[in-house]
Amino acid sequence: MLELPTIQDTMNDRRRINGPAEGTRPPVYASHLKSGGATDRAQRQREPTDLRKIFLKTGLIPSASGSSYLEFAPSSSLANARSNPKSLIPPSSALKLSCTVHGPKPLPRSAAFSPNLVLTTHVKYAPFAARKRKGHIRDASERDLGVHLETALRGAIIAERWPKSGIDLTITILEAEDDRWWADAPDLHDASWGMMNVLAGCITAASAAIADAHIDCLDLVSGGVAALVSDDSTEDSAAAPRLMLDADPAEHRSIMAACVVAYMPARDEITELWLKGESSKIALEKGDQRSAHEALIDGAVDAARGAHSVLSEAVRETMLRAVTPL
Amino acid sequence: MASTSNEAPAVPPSLSLPPSQFARLQPHAYLLAHLSPPAATNQPSIRANGREPLQFRTTSANCGSLTHTNGSAVVRIGDTAAVCGVRAELLHTDDIASWSVARTSSASTNKRQRLAELGEDVTEEDNEDEDDQDRAHIEDLSLLVPNLSLSTGCAPGYLPGAPPSTTAQSISHEILSLLHSSRLVKADDLRIWYQPPNLGPEDEQMDVDEGAGKKAETEEQKPREIKAYWVLYIDIMIISLAGNPFDAAWASVVAALRDTKLPNAWWDVDNETVLCSDDVSEAHKLTLRGLPVASSFCVFEADAAAGWRAKPIPNAQQQKKDGKGRWILADPDGYEDNLAHERVSIVVDKEKNGKTVILKMEKVGGWTIDTEDLRRLVDVSSKRWDEMKQIFDQC
Prior knowledge:
Chain A: Its main location: cytoplasm. The structure holds 2 protein chains of 2 kinds. By secondary structure, chain A is an alpha+beta fold. Chain A has helices at about 30-35, 75-85, 140-155, 195-210, 290-325, and strands at about 30, 55-60, 65-70, 95-105, 120-125, 165-175, 220-230, 240-245, 255-265, 270-275. In chain A, helix 3 links the parallel strand 5 (about 120-125) and strand 6 (about 165-175). Helix content of chain B is about 35%, strand content about 25%. At the A-B interface, strand 1, helix 1, strand 4 and strand 6 of A face strand 3, strand 4, helix 5, strand 6 and strand 9 of B.
């Protein structure tokens, strides 16, 4: 049963300081080995339709034309662990990211002519962002996030107003979300659920940074996540999975399916939709005629509307700052 | 700048620019005008950002806000912000290829050699000796791994997704060498010891009679051995860059290391691995040697080419002597950083009795700063140390 962590590949990267050539192993906690769950599982204290509080502020990075910083309020288990630390293993984590926009600026000479604004997105985790140390070079999941983010934003930006120019959007994730509770073994329904929350946060933060850079958009895009979870301890198939908005994967035993949308409320338009899990096989509660994926999308849109209220408030503050100089 | 009087429209519009545009077009003249105001106006010489020449920007620090780190800190110096996270991982001595060789030879002979080189001063203090060994261990096994990243979109010049720029590489290495030379981290904090139990080979067939006789032998214990080391991955993300990244990065490293807690770890014979306890009360903080504080300065010259001219312009030489043609600016921001070529970086620490110790002094890019100036800057740096000490103690 003892599963030893594998030695991380030591990259032969001459431009960085690489550490011991022999490779290092992450620490193994004794309590983790003894029993499956040493501490109590994090429990969701919010209502199914309650979102975590979002802290969003723009204009913190003066050298960029637009910037924003986004933080999710820690869930109750994490907040408890912070105020009264007992274990070194954090029960869950809360998203923290910073986003910068550089541009619009002329495209490099070598680039082909473009009648529209060229949007480039980069999403990078800090090495210390997740439970497992991340590498310095972008991995597949980070590239994936970048592409999803680009599609989410491209639909909102009025690109034809800036021919032959481009903007660089960079997101640095200082703390990511967990994919599951740390003590759980990966099971059948396991996937990188944390990525979906990260993407939702990225979309909201990027939208604020673009507004801060004064780039014309159709509307502010905000991201939202909804998930179908079954929290029953017994694998009782009779109980229908419940729809949770802004689900923190660390707080649920099993996530069946999840959905993230990028949503523009003013036009009631979805610019990006990402659905994961076997939603077609899930039956909702009796009386609910919707199919599972319809319910998921509705839930995600509701969550995005919630995030939008925070976003519009942050952008309003930005504008007030621009109008009334210090 | 715009004229305010009513007759202004009658006069053809003059070529005046708002200050912000002038600053962009003629940065050198703009800063010079601030630093040397006309004598008639009676204005003090002040920098374009409103600071005194030797004034540092407001600094704030915040520790322990990142969940997945052993220690973390955010340091903001003006508009430059650095986030540092320390992650501890284990390096098993079994994995180190040269471990058994290195332990027998280098630990003893090397030390002896080193002492021999120092003269016959073998009766040196143990403390010093330990320090030497510390440094060798941490350096040889590279137990401290600092990496700085500028590709976070912190400034337009640094491309995200590209390999680390020259600046990032050089700051990473400066931090590494300063960590080594200041011997900030004690190697003893990073060692995981194991005391092998004394199980004699004949233990199993031991007779009751023999038991008494053997007792004496069991008294002498097997020597303790090091089973693993903690490796500290120190990652610094410069979130926002507005000049002087080194001071901010170094301050964040020191603050994060002060915040770092390592779990209690031991060698588990059954699993043949190192296990840790997740109990916070058993974890120990790092004991750091001192509190090194970095302060950087740049030199702004009114006429940078003066020294290179074959024929000195009259008065130029005189000006130089008076020190009027140049200004030493503490903690340069991004604007000043681009205008200065000569830089000084001083890292100081203070001992308990208030004595200032210089840990590093670096001066590059010019020739205007002399020993007298350096002495003055060390004084300024030691004042800065007091400020930073307060900030570190609060977080």
